[in-house]
Amino acid sequence: MDDNELEVLRQAERIVWAASWRLQEQSVLEQLADSRGLACARLEPRSDVIQLVTYDGAHLGHVRREGPPGPDERWVAVLRQSARQVGTYGSAESAAAALARACGKMIRP
Questions:
Q1: d(Cα 90, Cα 31) in Å, to the nearest integer?
Q2: CB within 10 Å: which end of the chain, N or C, has fewer?
Q3: Strand, coil or helix: what is 102?
Q4: Across the chain, how many H-helices and E-strands are there?
Q5: Is residue 107 part of a domain?
Q6: Does 97 fall in a domain?
Q7: With 90 as the cut, is the pLDDT of residue 106 above it?
Q8: Is position 10 within any domain?
Q9: For 35-80, how does the pLDDT look when each residue is reduced to its tens digit (9 = 90+)?
């Protein structure tokens, strides 16, 4: 295969990966549509590394773990609209709460 053929193959892989992400995201968001308050759900059912975050069923963004799980794990909160990182936190719950605050949502106890 020459360089042009490899690039076409890589581009096709990226398209398939992005479409797969969107389908998974859509399925998870449908599950969260009727939730009230802050809610999180795994993007991939077998892994907690990426979780979608909603508030009253509205998609705010996602949180993702950076590095291995454990006492020193770090979670990044990412806004949906801009893909901008809100910050890094010690737990998925803290990252989700920060994401909600960044979107102007009041966290209910």
A1: 26
A2: C
A3: helix
A4: 2, 5
A5: no
A6: yes
A7: no
A8: yes
A9: 999 999 999 888 889 999 999 999 999 999 998 888 889 999 999 9
Check residue 108 and give its pLDDT.
63
pLDDT the model gives residue 15: 95
User: Does residue 57 fall inside a structural domain?
Assistant: yes
- Which among 55, 61, 52, 62 is positioned nearest to 29, based on CA atoms? 52
User: Per the structure, how many domains does the chain have?
Assistant: 1
Nearest 10 degrees: CA dihedral of 97, 24, 64, 45? 90
- Residues of the chain with pLDDT > 70, as a percent, come to 98
Global pTM exceeds 0.85: no
Q: What is the mean pLDDT of the chain?
A: 92
**Rg from Cα positions in the chain:** 16
